Amino acid sequence: MDIRDEHALQIIKNVYGGSIKLRSGANALRYRLHHKSGLLQIIQDVNGHIRNSNRMVQLNKICDKYNIDFIYPNKLVFDSG
Q1: pTM of the model
Q2: Residues 6 or more apart from 39 whose CB is under 8 A from it?
Q3: pLDDT, tens only, 52-75
Q4: Same structural domain for residues 28 and 2?
Q5: Which ranges of the chain does DSSP label H, i.e. alpha helix?
Q6: Residue 50, beta-bridge partner list
Q7: Residue 18: which of 41, 49, 45, 50 has the closest Cα?
C-alpha cells in the first residue's frame, strides 16, 4: 500500500466521514461509510464521472435504489485531457 493511497482515503474520509481500517492478512486498506447522508453525497459527486463499464452498472443499480438519475459520462475526445 502506497502512502499516497492512504492519503487519498484520508481526504475522502475528511469530506464524507466513515472509517479507514487495515485489512488483516493483506497489504490493503478498507474505507467504510455507514451513514446515508454521506453515501448519497458520494453518489452525487461521482455520478457522471465513472467510465469503467462494470462500475457504471454498479453505480446505476445504486442510483436506482436511491431514486437518483444516473448520468452517463461525456464522451472522450482528443481535447479531453
Answers
A1: 0.80
A2: 33
A3: 999 999 999 999 999 999 999 999
A4: yes
A5: 3-16, 36-46, 53-65
A6: none
A7: 41
